[in-house]
């Protein structure tokens, strides 16, 4: 009799243990499913893909061609990249989101090209889910580039880039 009760008790413990484990897994899955959109996804696009998707061609990073986009509180919203297409002489600035990925928030990319007598400005500023990208002819010229990403409500955001002339040539 003692053995039978022990066997029955052991079976119940195993059964309830499995139910508890399944409940824990279900709770974890629900938590992941309802996590904030700001941190729910990884951006599927690289800077090269963003420039290629928008403008075609083959793009590569330029010297000093990356700046992190962060808020003053140190929260990273994404990255801004300066890319170059050797076949066309164009630069592409792309803002790759790492916060609010997949959510449509104001995202911008800015390129200034220093030309004789002034500068040419190229801007892409819209609500995007993954990236913003702009391009301009810059062979033999210096450039300034920067980017911004807003939060979901548009009440705050981050910006970054290089605000002085560089990458000349």
Task: Give an overview of the whole structure.
The protein has 169 residues and is α+β, with helices and mostly antiparallel strands. Helices cover 24% and strands 45% of the residues. It has two helices and eight strands, in the order ααββββββββ. The strands form two sheets. Strands 1-2-3-6 form a four-stranded antiparallel sheet, with helices on one face. A four-stranded antiparallel sheet has the order 5-4-7-8, with no helix packed on it.
Succession of helices and strands: HHEEEEEEEE
Distance between the termini: 91 Å
By DSSP, the count of extended strands is: 8
Helix share bin = 10-25%
Shape: globular
Total DSSP helices: 2
Q: Taking Cα atoms only, what radius of gyration do you get, to the nearest Å?
A: 25 Å
Key phrases:
169 residues; four-stranded antiparallel beta sheet; disordered N terminus; 2 helices; alpha+beta; 45% strand
Helix and strand layout, with pairings?
Blueprint: H1 2-33, H2 47-55, E1 60-70, E2 76-85, E3 90-97, E4 105-115, E5 118-128, E6 131-137, E7 143-150, E8 157-166
Antiparallel strand pairs: 1-2, 2-3, 3-6, 4-5, 4-7, 7-8
Give a concise summary.
This protein is α+β, with helices and mostly antiparallel strands and 169 residues long. 24% of the residues lie in helices and 45% in strands.
